[in-house]
Amino acid sequence: MSKMVDWALQYADEGFAVFPLHSISAGQCTCKAKKDCSSPGKHPHWGEKTLRRGVKDATVDPKQIKAWWKHWPNANIGIATGRISGVVVIDIDGPDGEKSIKELERQCGKLPKTLRAQTGKGAHLFFRSGGHEYKNRTAIYPGVDIRGDGGYVVAPPSVHIAGRRYRWSNEGSPVDPPLWVRMILTPRVEPQISEPQVRLNPPGEDDPLLPSMVRPIPEGGRSNKLFRIALRWARYENKTPREVLQLLTETNKTKCRPPIGKSELRSICRSACRTANGRGKAEQALPPTPSHTREGKERVPYNGPQIKNPAKDSALRREKREG
Questions:
Q1: Residue 102 class from Cβ within 10 Å (0-12 exposed, 13-18 middle, 19+ buried)?
Q2: How confident is the model at residue 98, as a pLDDT?
């Protein structure tokens, strides 16, 4: 196996802030607790001057990284999540986590292909945070955690207590999370699910509304229904006109039979936002018409971390030669 410091330096070079974690040796954690450790191979090392605060000391400074891994050459690698690295991570743990994600995808839409790492029992899905503050939260659904500001994930090729190594499932860059994921990442719009079916509960008057929660809208009442839904998002859930239009577009596509035209949909959005926020505000905040951007989507350049397939990395090529 190539040196762990090579991997840590690669991550830092790509913009991920890293720090050393305890590893696994002879089937137990390298910390003093050893086999009695409650978080084997996942908690930070401690250094008198340079590593007293754990994830808060994460850095992209190659000099500091080399010093850490010189002292602990086999240390696992922790990647700090949130704004410091420009990513938010969905941590899927075991069968419960996979079940929750599949149910959410069924009701809200498929997740886009993004940077993904295979863990000991599940996966880490990396999404671009875009400078937003997404808090570190646990158990938002069965087997699903959010690693944002103040959190971290264990990175490949760290060793899991099960004896396997973490590994990248693909190569590339984190992508923007879809709208329904952003709604989940923000506590005030978090949909509720219940066990054992893991289904979204129908919204009450004060609950947030997702497009997947809307009943099918037949022809004849589409405009009126969409206006009332848009007004709820704009007035009671404090959505921006841009967010309202995105939600309306998704609702129109999945719930209206048949969907109404884009021009009428934008008109409904404007009317609802004007009613909610005051006449004249909606047009200024709406995105450009579809003719201005491809398929009506704004393409925002990504300048954050990019992970290449480790199989193509020079560190792994050195490993193959040495092996």
A1: exposed
A2: 94
